Amino acid sequence: MILDAEIKAQLAQYLQMMEGEVLLKVSAGSDKISQDMLALVDELATMSSNIKVENTQLERTPSFSVNRSSEDTGVTFAGIPLGHEFTSLVLALLQVSGRAPKVDQKVIDQVKSIKGEHHFDSYISLTCQNCPDVVQALNLMSIINPNITHTMIDGAAFKEEVESKNIMAVPTVFLNGESFGSGRMAIEEILAKMGNAPDASEFADKDPYDVLVVGGGPAGASAAIYAARKGIRTGIVAERFGGQILDTASIENFISVKHTEGPKLAASLEEHVKEYNVDVMNLQRAKRLEKKDFIEIELENGAVLKSKTVILSTGARWRNVGVPGENEFKNKGVAYCPHCDGPLFAGKHVAVIGGGNSGIEAAIDLAGIVKHVTVLEFNPELKADSVLQDRLNSLPNVTVLKNVQTTEITGTDKVNGISYVERDTGAAQHIELAGVFVQIGLVPNTDWLAETVERNRIGEIIVDNHGSTNIPGVFAAGDCTNNPYKQIIISMGSGANAALGSFDYLIRN
């Protein structure tokens, strides 16, 4: 048995939702992965009379495709879609059977309008929490449009193919054999990369808002919900809904929820926001704020949105080391997500830059996958919690270098080493390795505000206890502010606080 009893019970409920027959075409060999894949397919077939199985020869072995009985949909899984990809398999079965996807009709129409042949390959890791968004989006596009096909490829099952293409980060997507993109991409983002992005004309006739929220993370979602519940005209502009929590694998300190995953929480946030009358403008990036009769927010596509009040909740991003080689080898050995990219470095030597909680957690995770981990910390002592340090020190394949400064990440077509200086002696050192994971904290996403809103020396927006900035009618919340603690639950609270502050400002002005 591939599926345990609990998963099978949940799966049985989903399979009852199938609306038609599905044919799984299976290409298997004698290897262990093939045999496990066959066992999974056979289990699926025994659980639903709507699932049929047929042996065939596909482009890759082991793999299987998910089809209607009368036509091939172009949806293929190369490897075994378990782990984070199990949901992708379930959705493929339901959607191929005829179950309508939970996607805006506008998006469906965009996918249907795509002309020409488009063959996507996505390289993923089963431990990657970012990969399912890409896999599910490309699967759906294949199901909707007969000109599109998609194959999900598990990098662990097809190591030689991954290495031959120099893939060192997941998800990585190829279109018609050429590199298309890497990292998390929602279906709207994929369509935008294919030339289907909304332009400024789509925003031309929008009336001014009472509250316009800029940013779709926990703070922005909370602010939008609190504002909408007041019955005032609310809009939210988000570069990607969910923000930084989309890159968070495990969340265990969100009070009342013992454990969840970032993408799951992000989906819940978006679903909750859409329960209210909120104008959600996704995949949009703000580039200018100016106070006139209304507060104006100009987007990068040239559109200008107007509002009586604005709540800035643009969050933060991973801080770069800022050394030669970091940008050049990003996704070629330089990585920021150990959960996503760690499996690609199995049996290899890697480094983690950063001795805080994030860095030490990354080192602990990687130590179970790679041959050896070297931790580089700038300060004389690690900053991580003592319980994490104790766990790290118990691991036999970890070296900790303290009081060192990274000077360069070296390589040719990919990373081959890291150089550093011992700060007490000035001695230069070099380590040969295959990957570098950067974990040195966050930078607020406030560069676009220039001199319009008062910020502190590290770019955080300065707010009072109502969330107000120095500009009347402009509020801020979450990780982009000078709030000292960057936590999901605190961001949500500050978003609610800013929304209540903006409502109070509206009724008084």
UniProtKB/TrEMBL annotation:
NAD(+) binds at residues 349-363. InterPro entries: AhpF_NTD_C, AhpF_NTD_N, Alkyl_hydroperoxide_Rdtase_suF, FAD/NAD-bd_sf, FAD/NAD-binding_dom, Ferredoxin-NADP_redctase_2, Pyr_nucl-diS_OxRdtase_2_AS, Thioredoxin-like_fold. FAD binds at residues 210-225, 469-479. GO terms for cellular component: cytosol; protein-containing complex. Binds 1 FAD per subunit. Transfer of electrons from NADH to the respiratory chain. The immediate electron acceptor for the enzyme is believed to be ubiquinone. This is NADH dehydrogenase. It comes from Peribacillus loiseleuriae. The lineage of its organism: Bacteria, Bacillati, Bacillota, Bacilli, Bacillales.
